[in-house]
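Hi all, posting the design record for the shared folder.

TITLE: backbone redesign
STEP: 1 of 1
STRUCTURE INPUT:
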């Protein structure tokens, strides 16, 4: 059976060149970067070169990049670390975020809300992005931190982080952005976009899983969340995952140098897929994103619960049985399928939010793969038409 992977926003395979770069660091180049002997110095130097590679992509200082175990840890570090440090220094205890954030941000903010912080969760527009004016209007004198994702992982909506950073820069408010779906794919020149904190992850750009980083602009108040070692300049204890860090930097370098070609390819795929889906009338299959303000890598649709006897999750299983791997926004908690909280926050009803599926494209996705996915989708929906 043909196998078509269209879930690149969930994760990507490790690029061959990335793998080859990593391999020696599992075996003969195994030194602990904190050791002072030559084994340690060899890996220390490779980690620092990796840091420099990433810093150059963002146009920041090497000393402003802190490696973590992935996007989730980087976000926890940013949100908890900054919120606590600011509260200790100034007493400010208000956070602004959005209802469309990844769980890593949402649940971290919920955690802080039980520990003396007030959190404002803003609703996105029906395009999935946050209107910057809503942020500006939510600021209070005790606002310490704003955390807003750059590109939404479910619908691909892009937030205007430049406008928000222009604003926060003059307000003494720390601004964190979750750039897990955009780092190396989009131009993020942090000498222009004045975010204070930015988190990213390796496995979305053909790097290994379990590696990420937090950018911390010099002077940003932040406390460590992992204690017990002096690694990462006393800010993130724990022996560095050297093969993963080195692989991440290689993946970032490769992706970033080809970003325009990959982006153009993704745009062509998105247009092609949209054309193909026109075989379904709008009342049967609805598109859940706005092309003007969304990432071309992410394509989210809902199938009508009135027209078809199917939910998002069963549709995903049916697609999978036929070799097509995609994701749903809905979560399955204790056997009950919950509708996508992102689509609900965008103002859509439970049916549309429960019947959403996300296709996401990679650099090697072909038009033939999309033909195949649409053919399978057509077969499934025709069988399940009410
Ligand atoms: N933020 C966004 C927007 C994501 O898409 C993801 C992963 O799906 C994460 C954070 C978490 O990153 P990681 O898987 O590296 O922990």
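Okay, here is what came back for every position:
SEQUENCE:
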């Amino acid at each position: 059976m043909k196998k078509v992977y269209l879930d690149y926003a969930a994760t990507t395979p490790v690029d061959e060149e990335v793998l080859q770069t990593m391999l020696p660091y599992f075996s003969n180049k195994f030194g602990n970067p904190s050791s002072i002997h030559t084994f340690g110095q060899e890996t220390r130097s490779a980690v620092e070169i990796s840091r420099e590679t990433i810093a150059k992509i963002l146009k920041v200082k090497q000393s402003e990049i802190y490696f973590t175990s992935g996007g989730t840890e980087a976000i926890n570090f940013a949100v908890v670390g900054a919120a606590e440090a600011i509260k200790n220094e100034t007493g400010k205890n208000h956070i602004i975020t959005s209802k469309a954030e990844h769980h890593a941000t949402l649940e971290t903010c919920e955690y802080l809300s039980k520990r003396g912080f007030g959190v404002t969760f803003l609703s996105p527009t029906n395009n999935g992005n946050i209107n910057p004016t809503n942020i500006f209007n939510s600021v209070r004198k005790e606002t310490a931190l704003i955390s807003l994702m750059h590109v939404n992982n479910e619908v691909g909506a892009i937030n205007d982080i430049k406008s928000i950073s222009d604003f926060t820069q003059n307000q003494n408010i720390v601004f964190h952005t979750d750039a897990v779906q955009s780092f190396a794919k989009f131009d993020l020149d942090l000498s222009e976009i004045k975010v204070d904190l930015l988190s990213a992850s390796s496995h979305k750009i053909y790097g290994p899983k379990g590696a990420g980083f937090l950018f911390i602009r010099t002077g940003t108040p932040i406390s460590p969340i992992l204690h017990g070692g002096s690694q990462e300049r006393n800010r993130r204890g724990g022996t560095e995952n050297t093969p993963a860090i080195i692989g991440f930097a290689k993946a970032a370098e490769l992706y970033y140098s080809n970003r325009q070609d990959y982006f153009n390819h993704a745009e062509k795929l998105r247009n092609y897929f949209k054309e193909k889906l026109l075989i379904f009338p709008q009342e049967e299959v609805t598109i859940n994103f706005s092309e003007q303000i969304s990432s071309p890598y992410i394509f989210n649709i809902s199938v009508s619960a009135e027209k078809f006897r199917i939910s998002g999750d069963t549709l995903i299983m049916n697609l999978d049985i036929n070799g097509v791997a995609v994701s749903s926004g809905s979560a399955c908690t204790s056997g009950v399928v919950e509708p996508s909280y992102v689509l609900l926050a965008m103002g859509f009803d439970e049916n549309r939010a429960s019947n959403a599926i996300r296709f996401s494209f990679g650099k090697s996705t072909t038009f033939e793969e999309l033909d195949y996915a649409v053919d399978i989708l057509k077969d499934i929906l025709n069988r399940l038409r009410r």
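COMMENT: The pocket of pyridoxal-5'-phosphate is lined by residues 70-72, 102, 104, 149, 153, 178, 180-181, 201, 212 (CB under 6 Å).
Let me know if anyone wants the other runs.
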